[in-house]
């Protein structure tokens, strides 16, 4: 089915000048960028976005990193978009990410891991709504 998923290009990949290279990977996989913007998250915004990880030992470092510089947030649309985007991204830990995946090619560490992508339909819906109004999404 045609799905939408939510994606972030994290501060490390933005700093590396890799936005275009990563967008090209999405497009090559037939994922359409139907919403896109650059933002610099506040602490509150990052804490709310990652609320499910609040009790994890890496939470403070995660929020610190995600607020360390600008990111791009985007909505990707396409057949099986949620799973397809996770395949393109590769494993959370770049040391375990398969060759040819975004994290293998662009990420340095489990914290600075280049991209985020929704893991399930419910989180995709929540994450899209967290950063985008309906009027900012251009289905095509
Ligand atoms: P992301 O998909 O953005 O969701 C939560 C983030 O926490 C994850 O990517 C990683 O960058 C970061 N993180 C740091 N340590 C861990 C860990 N041990 N397990 C999972 N995620 C971690």
Automatic annotation (TrEMBL):
Known catalytic reactions: a ribonucleoside 5'-diphosphate + ATP = a ribonucleoside 5'-triphosphate + ADP; a 2'-deoxyribonucleoside 5'-diphosphate + ATP = a 2'-deoxyribonucleoside 5'-triphosphate + ADP
Signal peptide from the UniProt entry: none
Active site: 116
Alphabetical list of InterPro entries matching this protein: NDK-like_dom (IPR034907), Nucleoside_diP_kinase (IPR001564), Nucleoside_diP_kinase_AS (IPR023005)
Sites where the protein binds ATP: 10, 58, 86, 92, 103, 113
Principal cellular location given in the protein's record: cytoplasm
Localization of this protein: Cytoplasm
Entry EC no(s): 2.7.4.6
Entry superkingdom: Bacteria
Presence of keyword Electron transport: no
Keyword RNA-binding: no
Cofactor: Mg(2+)
Family: Belongs to the NDK family.
The protein's role, per its UniProt record: Major role in the synthesis of nucleoside triphosphates other than ATP. The ATP gamma phosphate is transferred to the NDP beta phosphate via a ping-pong mechanism, using a phosphorylated active-site intermediate.
Subunit structure: Homotetramer.
Protein name: Nucleoside diphosphate kinase
Organism: Reinekea marina
Encoding gene, per UniProt annotation: ndk
């Amino acid at each position: 089915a045609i799905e939408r998923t939510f994606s972030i290009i994290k501060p490390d990949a933005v700093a590396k000048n890799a936005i275009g290279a990563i967008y090209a990977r999405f497009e090559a996989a037939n994922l359409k960028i139907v919403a896109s913007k650059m933002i610099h998250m506040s602490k509150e915004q990052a804490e709310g976005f990652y609320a499910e990880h609040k009790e994890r030992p890496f939470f403070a470092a995660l929020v610190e990193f995600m607020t360390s510089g600008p990111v791009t947030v985007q909505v990707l649309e396409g057949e099986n978009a949620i799973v397809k985007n996770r395949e393109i991204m590769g494993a959370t830990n770049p040391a375990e990410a398969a060759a040819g995946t975004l994290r293998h090619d662009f990420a340095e560490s489990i914290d600075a891991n280049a991209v985020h992508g929704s893991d399930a339909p419910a989180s995709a819906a929540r994450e899209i709504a967290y950063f985008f109004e309906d009027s900012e999404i251009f289905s095509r």
